[in-house]
């Protein structure tokens, strides 16, 4: 009986060994790759490698936006012994409140940001501590060598070098390049350890440079004279565009007030869009040039045409008047040159009537009004041009001198 029981024990042990061996074979051979990948996922994380952002230059290769390598500081809270004393030392280096540092490291993780984009003074101060709980990672910071020059054109980037306005945003993909990837050793909770082993997967591809048609010297003087002119007229804002008429190249594009690109975060009330392409307004008398040019092109009037221009013109229930009274004995016979030179509302209204609604509307479109110019800046408006089917009887006359239509400064400069 004892021998019989012993046999069953041996058989049971043999079955158990076979099960264990089978399980080991299953895990070591059949499930090997799957389990290896699972283990790697627990101790390794894929980290993005930032690409070097391309620079922005003017037409003469003057740098308007460049990237500079700097350092950011991180902490390893699990390595901190006396947190209050540690926080006091770090706060002194960074010139920030102690409670801010304590809040940041109030956990048991292996990585928290202490401060991004350290100044040289902060970096040196932290290095001096020689603290094993503090590490540094290289990053890129966007720098604008000329401060506020062409601020509304160039635009700016955020903390992670992502374009937020202007050319920085519009050409963000070309400037930003392609981030790379690397495997980074992680702690048991899956959090990356910046000081751990790194394995390259794909290298980062640097961004492309962008060259503008802007001339920095012309841009500077345009901004200077725009600012002085606005202050002299006690105005609050204004815009200016300098264009090469033969090619359409923009040599300068200024808006006032402006801001320092290196300190855009503190300009809380500033509008960061480019008013030259985003703002819409009634152009007023300058639109008379468009009206007369359209009529001359169509042949409804010629340079030698003389019209009888009364002081007022009644259209349906509306009355068109001149902005200024005429001199005593002044003739009402006005040439096309007189109408433009003297900026006659009634005169240009008569010219638009000679042209007619349909043709006038078509020329307005041909001059580029009612659609973006595609100058290459974000948020560009199409302006406000109502379909000709919605025009009232008086609209042909009022649009002729720039009322009842909305344009941008970019559209107006391009058309003229």
Can you describe this structure in just a few lines?
This protein has 416 residues and is of the alpha+beta class. Helix content is 38%, strand content 19%.
Q: Tell me the radius of gyration.
A: 35 Å
**Helix content, binned percent:** 25-40%
Distance between the termini: 115 Å
Oligomer: single chain
* Large-scale geometry: elongated
- Average the pLDDT over all residues and give the rounded result: 87
The chain-level structural class is alpha+beta
Contiguous helical run count: 16
Helix/strand order, N-terminal first? HHEEEHHEHEHHHEEEHEEHHEEEEHHHHH
Give the uncertain stretches in residue-range form.
none
Structure description:
- The protein has 16 helices and 14 strands.
- Strands 2, 3, 4, 5 and 8 form a five-stranded mixed sheet that branches. A three-stranded antiparallel sheet has the order 1-6-7.
- It is elongated and about 140 Å long.
- The mean pLDDT is 87.
- The chain has helices at residues 2-30, 32-43, 83-94, 98-104, 120-129, 151-154, 166-170, 172-176, 216-232, 275-278, 288-298, 336-341, 345-355, 357-366, 395-400, 409-415, and strands spanning 44-49, 56-57, 63-75, 112-115, 134-143, 180-185, 198-202, 210-211, 238-244, 249-256, 306-308, 312-315, 318-321, 333-335.
- It is an alpha+beta fold.
- It starts with a helix and ends with a helix.
Topology:
Elements: H1 2-30, H2 32-43, E1 44-49, E2 56-57, E3 63-75, H3 83-94, H4 98-104, E4 112-115, H5 120-129, E5 134-143, H6 151-154, H7 166-170, H8 172-176, E6 180-185, E7 198-202, E8 210-211, H9 216-232, E9 238-244, E10 249-256, H10 275-278, H11 288-298, E11 306-308, E12 312-315, E13 318-321, E14 333-335, H12 336-341, H13 345-355, H14 357-366, H15 395-400, H16 409-415
Parallel strand pairs: 2-8
Antiparallel strand pairs: 1-6, 2-3, 3-4, 3-5, 6-7, 9-10, 11-14, 12-13
Helix pairs in contact: 3-4, 3-5, 11-13, 11-14
